[in-house]
Amino acid sequence: EKENLISITRRFNLSSRVKILDKVDNELKFQYLANSDIYILSSLHEGFGIVLLEALYCGLPIIATNNGGQLDIIKNYRNGLLIKPQNPQDIAKAIRKILSNNKLKSKISRNNLEDVKKYYIQNTAKKYLDVITNELKKQNKN
């Protein structure tokens, strides 16, 4: 879709405001995220979206489709807005809602900075250890 997107930005005279990127390293990726206002994930389906955790980590309000693994991470109006897939009008409406409501934007940003902590490696490792420990206890009882 890269050439199509470039064509669209030219047609709407947005080339100076829209950057279509290829693969970037982590440092540059987080610089872009840190300078963004919103993260939009318009995928039809995602498994477990690491990109959502990266956006949470940066405190970005997230707009994501209400389908797939993003539902495990995004809670509507807590840390983002959920929209119907393949609905550009919903994306535009959600963007306007976040950008016009500083209170909502700040609340979502704070929640994201807090919510991402449950995915930190030490917390994830503890959950795995708890599962393993509980299974071992069950096996020892039998």
Description:
- By secondary structure, the protein is mainly α.
- Helices cover 55% and strands 8% of the residues.
- The chain has 7 helices and 3 strands.
- The chain has a 3-stranded parallel sheet with strand order 1-2-3, with helices on both faces.
- Helix 3 (50-57) links the parallel strand 1 and strand 2 (62-65).
- The termini are far apart.
What is the secondary structure topology, with strand pairs?
Layout: H1 2-11, H2 26-34, E1 39-41, H3 50-57, E2 62-65, H4 70-73, E3 80-83, H5 88-99, H6 102-115, H7 121-141
Parallel strand pairs: 1-2, 2-3
Helix segment tally = 7
Which range does the strand content fall in? 5-15%
What is the total tally of β strands?
Answer: 3
Rg measurement, Å: 19 Å
Within the largest sheet, what's the order of strands?
1-2-3
Describe the global form: elongated
What is the rounded distance between the termini? 56 Å
Average pLDDT score: 93
The largest sheet, given as strand count, sense and whether it forms a barrel, is: 3 strands, parallel
Helix-residue proportion: 40-55%
Q: Give the ordered list of helices and strands.
A: HHEHEHEHHH
Q: Note poorly predicted spans.
A: none
| Main structural class | mainly alpha
